[in-house]
Amino acid sequence: xxxxxxxxxxxxxxxxxxxxxxxxxxxxxxxxxxxxxxxxxxxxxxxxxxxxxxxxxxxxxxxxxxxxxxxxxxxxxxxxxxxxxxxxxxxxxxxxxxxxxxxxxxxxxxxxxxxxxxxxxxxxxxxxxxxxxxxxxxxxxxxxxxxxxxxxxxxxxxxxxxxxxxxxxxxxxxxxxxxxxxxxxxxxxxxxxxxxxxxxxxxxxxxxxxxxxxxxxxxxxxxxxxxxxxxxxxxxxxxxxxxxxxxxxxxxxxxxxxxxxxx
Length: 263
What we know:
Layout: H1 15-41, E1 72-75, E2 80-82, E3 90-96, H2 103-117, E4 124-130, H3 138-147, E5 155-159, H4 162-172, E6 177-178, E7 221-222, E8 225-229, E9 235-240, H5 244-259
Parallel strand pairs: 3-4, 4-5
Antiparallel strand pairs: 1-2, 1-5, 3-8, 6-7, 8-9
């Protein structure tokens, strides 16, 4: 078998091998970049003083948990919903848009499973906030919700003014949401500063991997985390929607809050 070290012209005659080697180098480089991105945004690498949305999954003590700010949004049935309507309930929130082709349907499928598993818990609510509210009207949300057999009383789909929704997500839940379409005309309500992570927003790689939605030029970039809120409207935990262990922890924590004394 020829020795490549002794024959410097060997690779000149084997373009197929050069292409394979180049492909391997490229794949390795992409892999290293992906690992670096994951490590840089992974909550497990955060210090104890990190923003709540980026800390490791753990049930926050009530005295350390921030409150969800008051809001007024519209449910898919046209009814006005405020934070007061959820007081006394334990609820799980997520952030989706109906034209999202990948992560959002998966998140909604998980919510549908949670709805089934907690079917005997009358005090549990599921709340999906649209991060594309200009398109996601109550009628559109109603059609989307029907695909997941969402209970009208126990699983809410909320929409409203874009600036109100984005402010709630960014400042209230401390999560990332960004609409690239806003940058075309001005720094709109969904435009993040130069470094979103410095603002405490959580930007996992999967949230940046959305494809282009139907009839939409640019995807809405947003967090794919679930948020657990207690009966007093306090944020008690953040959970990865793509991680089985994190979702099991979410169910345990939600059950614990449901068993706790009512306010």
